[in-house]
Amino acid sequence: MARASKKPRLPGGKASKSSSADDKRHKRHSGKPAGSRNTEAKEALVTKSRSPKDPRIGSRKPVPLVAPEKTPAEPLRHFSPARELKAIEQDQRLEALMDKVDSGHKLTAEEKSYVDKQLARHLELCQMLGIETETPEAQDDPEEDLYDRFHNIDVDKFK
Prior knowledge:
Elements: H1 20-23, H2 36-50, H3 81-89, H4 92-102, H5 109-129, H6 142-151
Helix pairs in contact: 3-5
């Protein structure tokens, strides 16, 4: 009995050419070659310089340690007291706030300070121009004046 050769045969019955490379098993390439960490790190450094920086690192823009001072806006100057008085009387914001007060609503601190400031300036301008600011309702009636005098009499004077 003849020994059968272990060489693979082609479908036609002919023996294939053998070489030492064919005799070895071919390895499947799974994974990366040895030392791949080093090459990836170098590539990452090159690409990272081109890409945007990590947002956790922060900005290089200097941060002011003291808040900048706000320059207050200079109030509007009127040429004459009469013009300023007219401007105050035609102020829509003041008018809306006064309507709010008349209807019984409460004003915020900012609104109240604005109303007080404008009314004080209005009174000052009226005094400068010689305009009487009292309304006819505020004037005392002679009958009410007598009634007040009667109730305010000091009785101890007459004893």
